[in-house]
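Notes from the 1:1 (GR / supervisor)

We went over the backlog. Supervisor wanted to see one worked example end to end before approving the batch request, so GR pasted a single chain during the call. The sequence is below; no edits were made to it. Supervisor asked that the structure be written out right there so they could see what the output format looks like.
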Amino acid sequence: MEEINSQTQPELITMEAPVEKKKRKRRRKKSHSRAARRDEATAILWGVAEEMRSAAEDIRGAAGDLDESKANDEEPNEELEVPSTETIHKEIEDRVEEASKYFEEHFSTSELESLAEEMRSWSDGLEGTNLSQSEKAQTISDTADTLESAISSLDGCSFPDDFDLDDVESFATELDQLADEIESGVSDIENCEFPGMYG
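Structure output shown during the call:
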């Protein structure tokens, strides 16, 4: 019995030996700079403007089909494969609803408003200090002004609510105008400078 125990003991020790766990290195989160936050917010707004233009183009295309369909209703031509007026109406209504939903879900100035508040607070905090007349202080103030002005302009953007199947061209034009307004505000914001805290 003693001989068996002496032979099995090393094996038991090996099995019971604690297994060292590899230590996982914790990765530090990269700081999210103001410029990066601005870029993300404006990229979303650019996307909204692009969607409005795309919807306007699609609606105009469907309007052309609608004119052709009405003409075919008046003088039927069996050789032409033209969708019915009801089908085209449904297509236009669905596209308007899709664009409206996209605008509602993606159009936002909240992140830009946060940046504007930060820059304005920073600018106000420099007043009365030895940096108040510096180039950096002027840049901070200018950035706050630009953000606030652009946000004020963007806040006036809204999806048109006067859709009329009898005048889809006017509605498409309104979508193009909405895209113009968004792009104008975003362009101003993209020119903003965000100085470093210690730069």
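Supervisor's comment: The chain has one domain: 35-190.
Batch request approved.
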